[in-house]
Amino acid sequence: MRKKSPWIYVPFWIVISFLTLFPIYWLFVISVKPAVDLFTTPDILLTSFYWDNYTEVLNDRLLRSYMVNSLIISSGNAVLCTTLGFFACYALSRFNMSGKESIFFWTITNRMAPPAVFLLPLFLLMTQVYRFGDFTLLDTRIGMILVYCTFNLPFAIWTLRPTVDGIPRELDEAAYVDGASPWKVITEVVFPLCRPGLAVTLILTWVFAWNEYLLAATLTNFNARTLTTGLSEYVTTTGTEWGIMAAISIFTLIPALIVFGMVQKHIVAGLTFGAVKG
């Protein structure tokens, strides 16, 4: 059916693309308009560009520090979750442990709970339990990286397990016969074959950490505030700076698009790897 009449699907995908891209386009329209024009009759077509909103964002030292915090926290969390998730999936796949299916299900339950449930326990852990003299994990980049592991690490394990399970154990056995050590089997046999799945896990956990707002707004004050929490600073009692907020939102989209573009060739392969086993 698809080969005989491919044009049937064209209108459908046009509608889907329009519904997906129009909010982003409208966000850009708001970001290039002065505040006065935002409360007049909406104009979908752009006739002029007001770049002062972007200039104010770029000149704001606090927003630049928030963006650096977001990049460090998101990247650190993505690398940590992907690395730990890979080794956890390798252990679940290769070792004959009793109750490993229960362990796998237990890790997923952390992802099922809403983040608001963990706010109070995480706050108490960061301020009282994990306290080293005058140093606490509250409002630190390291603390936020570890906090995001609570939700992203179970997701990484869930995403990577089909990938690791799809690699035949015979490859491991052949490497052992050739004299390879367990570490070499992991790094030179299993790891290279898992690259598509690792790329997908890395990008998804990075995006989840980059877009997160609730935990960052609650567990950070100044030193580790992220770019998403910076939006709330433009909602004041005297009014809301819609143009500046839209410009910040555009800036939050750019790094995600760059990361997606870097690993896009691995996304489809990683999502389907291990789906069919012979």
From TrEMBL:
Lineage: Bacteria, Pseudomonadati, Pseudomonadota, Alphaproteobacteria, Rhodobacterales
One Gene Ontology biological process: transmembrane transport
PANTHER family in the record: MALTOSE TRANSPORT SYSTEM PERMEASE-RELATED, MALTOSE_MALTODEXTRIN TRANSPORT SYSTEM PERMEASE PROTEIN MALG
Record-annotated ABC transmembrane type-1 domain positions: 67-263
Subcellular location: Cell membrane
Matching InterPro entries: BP-dep_ABC_trans_perm, MetI-like, MetI-like_sf
Family indicated by similarity: Belongs to the binding-protein-dependent transport system permease family. MalFG subfamily.
Membrane topology: Multi-pass membrane protein
Residue ranges of the TM segments: 7-28, 71-92, 112-130, 142-160, 198-222, 242-263
One Pfam family in the UniProt entry: BPD_transp_1
Gene Ontology, cellular component aspect: plasma membrane
Keyword Membrane appears in the UniProt entry: yes
Protein's UniProt name: Maltose/maltodextrin transport system permease protein MalG
